[in-house]
Amino acid sequence: MVIQQFSQYGVPAPEDEKLAELATSYLQSENNGERVERIIRDNKVFDVLKKEVKLDMIEMPYLEFVDKVNEKTQHEVEHHH
What we know:
Blueprint: H1 2-8, H2 16-28, H3 32-52, H4 62-79
């Protein structure tokens, strides 16, 4: 993330020692460590899901989609899933 910040502004990343210092400082401030941990965990979950779950994409008119969502929601409510 630190390197990303530098590249965002077109600045080359600093040397490894300075980069490690900046990364440590970043992770210790304002709950950034927890935020980075959550991002890594989310990415790992989505990577697994992308490999394991097969989605069937279909096109349908918007109103048909809304009807299907409402039907599914009503089923969930009735059967407490």
